Amino acid sequence: MIAQPEWIDEELVGTHISIVEKKKKIRLEQLRFEEFHEGDTAQIMHIGPFSEEGPTIQKLHDFIRSMDGVRTGLHHEVYLSDIRRAKPENWKTIIRQPFQK
């Protein structure tokens, strides 16, 4: 779930998925391009293993409360690190939580 500039479209993404699959000999069938509208959202960067996200998520929830906001829906995560290569203590995850005031 990484935002793309407006000039990136589904056709361009599809073309480059094919190129990467052939060049790197990997399968990307779960990769997709779609619009996502979530409204107001708070986000925070977590660095470390997924099992230690609890305090980071609590900070995010506390921030939303401090803004007189109410969480709407579930949070989602954007993984920035390749967990096959990076050490768990260096994993970077953006945690996003939609909310309403």
Automatic annotation (TrEMBL):
Gene3D superfamilies found in the cross-reference section: Regulatory factor, effector binding domain
Designated name of the protein: GyrI-like small molecule binding domain-containing protein
Domain (GyrI-like small molecule binding) ranges: 5-96
Species of origin: Pseudodesulfovibrio sediminis
Record Pfam families: GyrI-like
Residues that span the membrane, as ranges: none
